[in-house]
């Protein structure tokens, strides 16, 4: 098995990846490995392509070119087996929908329920649901939301909603967690709680990959950092990648990228191609 980063096996291996929206390139020539059992932060400016990278990993967007493997197999195999859990940045959840916290987190178990063998599904409902209920209970306990399990999701604060989304991700009991800005918009106690939960997931051997703009949190907690802005701009330790000099370089890359995009968009050949 391929190894990287201090000898850790590779959880996700991306080779020669390109992605675009309506011919506008968003990710180019991405060659990247995420070490297994480690906590990686993906850092980049707004519009850098971080969420797009997750869309490709979760299969909701098709790359123009390139390959993605998980543990040396096509990533789709692991997606289908429920090994990859994803917490979206702007979750497609109807917060006004009359469902409880418990039911929302149970949504994280649907993949397991679909793949449960027939004999298990034929068990009396109480037994059948107890395994899934236990996973939901554990996840709610981890994010300190068990006491609010019966509350309608519309009656939660922003930080509580974020914790429920995290619980839903944890309830999947996947071995790779993809988290798009799990710390955005939460207060310091919730941030500490979420960072603690993710640290425990890593200790349990899971691969944690999060997009974040929280540099102090990333410096303190993660093992590995990827800097991205359409291209990979750096890969290495938090000390090295999150230094002021490196972050300044990333910010400059963003300004240069925008200026270049304007030049391309105004060029006669691009305008002709757009029709
Ligand atoms: N559905 C879409 N159609 C067209 N362009 C899109 C679409 N989604 C994203 N983009 C564009 O692709 C680029 C990358 O977007 P993406 O959401 O991946 O960035 P990001 O790094 O996650 O940014 P942020 O930190 O703001 O969340 C941006 O310029 C964005 O406007």
TrEMBL record:
ABC transporter domain segment(s): 12-255
UniProt xrefs under PROSITE patterns: ABC_TRANSPORTER_1 (PS00211), ABC_TRANSPORTER_2 (PS50893)
This protein's record includes keyword ATP-binding: yes
Domain of life assignment: Bacteria
Keyword list, A-Z: ATP-binding, Nucleotide-binding, Transport
GO molecular function terms noted in the UniProt entry: ATP binding; ATP hydrolysis activity
Cross-referenced SMART domains: AAA (SM00382)
Membership in a protein family: Belongs to the ABC transporter superfamily.
Name of the protein described by the UniProt record: ABC transporter
Organism in which the protein naturally occurs: Halomonas campaniensis
């Amino acid at each position: 098995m391929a190894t990287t980063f201090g000898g850790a096996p590779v959880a996700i291996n991306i080779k020669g990846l390109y992605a675009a929206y309506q011919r506008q390139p968003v990710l180019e020539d991405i060659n990247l490995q995420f070490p297994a059992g480690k906590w990686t932060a993906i850092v980049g400016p707004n519009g850098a392509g971080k969420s797009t990278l997750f869309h490709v990993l979760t299969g909701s967007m098709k790359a123009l070119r390139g390959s993605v493997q998980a543990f040396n197999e096509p990533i789709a195999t692991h997606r289908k087996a429920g090994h990859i859990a994803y917490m979206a940045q702007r979750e497609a959840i109807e917060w006004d929908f009359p469902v409880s916290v418990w039911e929302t987190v149970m949504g994280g178990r649907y993949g397991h329920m679909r793949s449960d063998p027939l004999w298990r599904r034929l068990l009396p409902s109480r037994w059948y649901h107890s395994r899934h209920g236990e996973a939901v209970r554990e996840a709610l306990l981890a994010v300190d939301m068990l006491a609010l399990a019966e509350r309608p999701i519309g009656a939660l604060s922003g930080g509580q909603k974020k914790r429920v989304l995290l619980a839903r991700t944890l309830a999947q009991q996947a071995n790779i967690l993809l988290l798009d800005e799990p710390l955005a918009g939460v207060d310091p106690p919730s941030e500490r709680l979420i960072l603690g939960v993710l640290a425990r997931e890593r200790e349990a051997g899971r691969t944690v990959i999060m997009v974040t703009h929280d540099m102090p949190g990333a410096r303190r907690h993660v093992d590995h950092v990827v800097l991205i802005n359409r291209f990979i701009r750096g890969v290495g330790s938090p000390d090295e990648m999150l230094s002021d000099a490196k972050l300044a370089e990333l910010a400059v890359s963003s300004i240069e990228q925008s200026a270049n995009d304007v030049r391309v968009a105004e060029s006669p050949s691009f305008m002709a191609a757009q029709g």
